[in-house]
Amino acid sequence: MAEAAESAIESRLNYCFSDKRLLSQALTHRSYSAHHNERLEFLGDAILSFTIAELLYNRFPQCSEGDLSRMRSNLVRGNTLTNIATELNLGPNLKLGSGEAKSGGRRRASILADAVEAIIGAVHLDADIATSKNLIERFFSARLDELDPNNPGKDAKTRLQELMQSQKQPLPKYRLKKTSGKAHEQLFEVECQVTSLQAPLSGTGGNRREAEQRAAAAVLQRLQSND
Fold first, then answer.
1. CATH number, position 213
2. pTM for this predicted structure
């Protein structure tokens, strides 16, 4: 991996590897080399599951085991990990065999998700369990904020849309207000407008999806406080 690409990934991770070989291995698919990322993925998957379970346990003391399990499944599903991989821009830096690369492997959800888990495992080996848990908390901070223990399988945008539909109101409108920061560290600000509020409310995040979810969560909170 080129040094500049390696540094860019470390910047987005907010973590600098002492052993750069671990980062390289985490991004290596089995189609490229026998020294691939599957063992790191196995380790990272276990750390991710435990860390999310612990975060949910501490954040939602009133929730049952079933609700906690549903929230964990919603958080660690492949689609979420694929989105994290996209936010980290892992695709262009994956090491793939020529056949896998030609068939769209850099965009394949399973490969991207596996790379995120492998990076978690690599950080654990390079540092310690506390550092890998902190990394996971950064990955999932906004996603945890979006959770509603009363609707453990639904995110803020879905809940807001369903609320508007139940009240027979127009659906929420989202507008990108501004972006700031460097290309690999951009901050997005999105407004969410609903007819029952006089002014839109904003949310910010490292990508547009995250900003929209936070804006929707802000609107939900305001609507609930007005009840």
1. 3.30.160.20
2. 0.70
